[in-house]
Amino acid sequence: MRAALTAAVLLAVGSAQARESEKTLFLACAPGYPGTSAEAQPHMDAFAAAVARGAGWPAASLGAGYEPTEQGGLARLSQRETGVALVPLPFWVKHTRALALEPRMQVVLQGASGPTEVWALVAKKGRVASPTALAGFTLASTAGYAPGFVRGALSGWGKLPESVKVIESSQVLSQLRKAASGADVAVLLDGAQTAALSSLPFAAELEVVARSEPLPSGFVVTVGQRLPSAKRRSLEQSLVKLSADPAGATLQAMRMSRFLPMDAGALATARRLAGAAP
Amino acid sequence: MRRVLGAALACLALACASAPKTLRPTTGLGPTQMPPGQSATQLLAEARASFARRPLPEAVRRAETLFLATAHGEPHDVEGLYGAIQARLWRLEHGAEAAERDALVGSAVEAGQLCLTRAPERAECHYGLALALGVQARERHATAIAGLQEMVVHLRRAAELEPRFDHGGPARVLGLVLLRAPGWPLGPGDAEQGLEEARKAVALAPEYPPNLLVLSEALLANGAAAESRDWAERAVELARAQEARGEPDASGWVREGEQLLAKAQRSLNSAATSRGPWGPST
Question: Selecting from 2.60.40, 1.10.520, 1.25.40, 1.20.58, what CATH number does the domain B191-270 have?
Answer without folding.
Answer: 1.25.40
